[in-house]
Amino acid sequence: MERRLGVLNAQAEEPDLWNDADRAQAVMRERTATEKRLAGFRALEQEFEDTLELIALAEEEEDAETLDDAEKALAALQAVAAKRQLESLLSGEADGNDCFLEIHAGAGGTESQDWAEMLVRMYTRWADAHGYGIEWLEESLGEEAGIKSTTLRINGDNAYGWLKTESGVHRLVRISPYDASSRRHTSFASAWVYPVVDDDIDIEIDESQVRVDTYRASGAGGQHVNKTDSAVRLTHAPTGIVVQCQNDRSQHRNRAEAWKLLRARLYELELQKREAEVQEAHEAKSEIGWGHQIRSYVLHPYQMVKDLRTDVEKGNAQGVLDGDIDGFLEAALAAKIGAKREP
Q1: pTM above 0.85, yes or no
Q2: What share of the chain is helix, strand, coil (3-state, %, to 5)?
Q3: Counting C-beta atoms within 10 Å of the first and last residue's C-beta, which end of the chain has fewer, N or C?
Q4: Pair 175, 114: CB distance under 8 Å
Q5: Is the Cβ–Cβ distance between 166 and 181 less than 8 Å?
Q6: CA nearest neighbour of 69 among 43, 42, 50, 82
Q7: pLDDT tens across 151-178, in order?
């Protein structure tokens, strides 16, 4: 890591670096991210050494209370080190990139649309807690409550690497707030995650195979942007992929963002094809129906969230819905990396 930082520092000092603004920004982003990771490692190393010294001193003075506190601190450091080790394995071709996150309500009308909005809240709270930036690209509101679909861009180091295992169907069981008889309902919504494609990655798209539609925007902020046909929808005929963007008043900017999203979808499709031997998300996507969810969120008759791929479960369902999903992300990522290492 120190060697890589040295290379980046040398590149940052090149006199003609800023002649290419895109390359300069990429170098500076990578340097900042590398400096942050290196600082985190050094802080962890120093805290480990300090804790060992405290343990030795407590044993020497037979201070049981201090020894107990130091051992707890050491156990906490072990957990942090395990997470850093896992994070260091985010070395996939696009793991370090920003990502697009799409949420779609399943069948079931208002129930599923409300659940889809709850998922959006969960992911945006997770992103906020980790210092990631969030851009809203598209939102289609439900008739009574919730959303039919939303597309977000999550910006930050390793955003795609952390969230890429979240693609799939999510199932909610609860007493419906929309049922006058207070009956239990099961709702479904899907989440799909795609990497933002760097400009230096060449994704060939035959524009003659892409249908471009424009329409008036709706959803959050719609009262400001829906006076003209500023929203843009692209349909890629060979794959059937549809993307849309409506977050800006400018059709030109929405069109540009929609093309970025389409490139990301096609790039992610190519990545998944390369990893077909380890049952990547593209294979799962063709098989997943509303009865093949990756995670269940139960709010009644008990509270539990369980990931059906890793068997990780948490009893604090509300905490999970408030964005505490790190345990699920880490377990799914570890399982994914472990599968790749198996012969």
Answers
A1: no
A2: 50, 20, 30
A3: C
A4: no
A5: no
A6: 50
A7: 999 999 889 999 999 999 999 999 988 8
